[in-house]
Amino acid sequence: DIVMTQSPLSLSVTPGEPASISCRSSQSLLHSNGYNYLDWYLQKPGQSPQLLIYLGSNRASGVPARFRGSGSGTHFTLTISRVEAEDVGIYYCMQALQTHTFGQGTKLEIK
Amino acid sequence: QVQLVQSGAEVKKPGSSVKVSCEASGGIFSNYGFSWVRQAPGQGLEWMGGIIPMVDTANYAQKFQARVTITADESTNTAYMELSGLRSEDTAIYYCASGSVYGSGTYSYDYWGQGTLVTVSS
């Protein structure tokens, strides 16, 4: 199985400041078709997770432009350009190349 | 817009089995893949397995391979997850998650069910 490793595991950010989360995979997630099979999900407190970014860098429908996914191969980053209070929750990366695997999660809190 | 509605909470005895359903509406069932993801209390998300009804093939995480069966019924637009040999460590919220299948045969999770709490207790 592909192992996904996120860092940091927790993050405390002042509103309006940027934040970034790293996700590394034990194998390349770059398919021969040129797509990276890496998604980002956010689970807000008490809710089901929601899709933020798919195929490495594509924002899901309704996701604000302050969220950006980047990276390729085995290293990916989720960047929030200016954190807002509603962004609190746990962020997960997930590889969808083979049998799917989630990272451990990164908890984002507001200072 | 696809909606996923899961069956209700369950309380089970150790050693028994549980079967959770996930009914999809608002989309073409066979165009989607369905995965089951669980979350133990205070823990992260754990992928258990998934199925693409169009090809009627399920695959499973190695950890659950011997105990989980995932099926889909296109006549009722419903996916199922059955977990056997329940133990206390299986107490968790079980989510159904779905998305359109890419040409490569995999999918992201655009849609999530509300979650089903399964409690395993003697």
Question: TL;DR of this structure?
Answer:
By secondary structure, chain A is mainly β. Chain A has no helices and eleven strands. Chain A has strands at residues 4-7, 10-13, 19-25, 38-43, 50-54, 58-59, 67-72, 75-80, 89-95, 101-102, 106-110.
Topology at a glance:
The complex is a heterodimer of chains A (111) and B (122).
Chain A: E1 4-7, E2 10-13, E3 19-25, E4 38-43, E5 50-54, E6 58-59, E7 67-72, E8 75-80, E9 89-95, E10 101-102, E11 106-110
Parallel strand pairs in A: 2-11
Antiparallel strand pairs in A: 1-3, 3-8, 4-5, 4-9, 5-6, 7-8, 9-10, 9-11
Chain B: E1 3-6, E2 10-12, E3 18-25, E4 32-39, E5 46-52, E6 57-60, E7 68-73, E8 78-83, E9 92-100, E10 111-112, E11 116-120
Parallel strand pairs in B: 2-11
Antiparallel strand pairs in B: 1-3, 3-8, 4-5, 4-9, 5-6, 7-8, 9-10, 9-11
Most residues in contact, chain pair and counts = A-B, 28 and 27 residues
Indicate the multimeric state: heterodimer
Shape of chain B: globular
Tell me the fraction of residues in β-strands of chain A, as a range: over 45%
In what range is the share of β-strand residues of chain B?
over 45%
Structure report:
- The complex is a heterodimer of chains A (111) and B (122).
- Helices cover 0% and strands 49% of the residues of chain A.
- By secondary structure, chain A is mainly beta.
- Chain A has strands at residues 4-7, 10-13, 19-25, 38-43, 50-54, 58-59, 67-72, 75-80, 89-95, 101-102, 106-110.
- The model of chain A has no long low-confidence stretch (mean pLDDT 97).
- Chain B has strands spanning 3-6, 10-12, 18-25, 32-39, 46-52, 57-60, 68-73, 78-83, 92-100, 111-112, 116-120.
- In chain B, the strands form two sheets. In chain B, strands 2, 4, 5, 6, 9, 10 and 11 form a seven-stranded mixed β-sheet that branches. In chain B, strands 1-3-8-7 form a four-stranded antiparallel β-sheet, with no helix packed on it.
- In chain B, a hairpin with a 4-residue loop joins strand 7 (68-73) and strand 8.
- Chain B is globular and about 45 Å long.
- The model of chain B has no long low-confidence stretch (mean pLDDT 95).
- At the A-B interface, strand 4, strand 5, strand 9 and strand 10 of A face strand 5 and strand 9 of B.
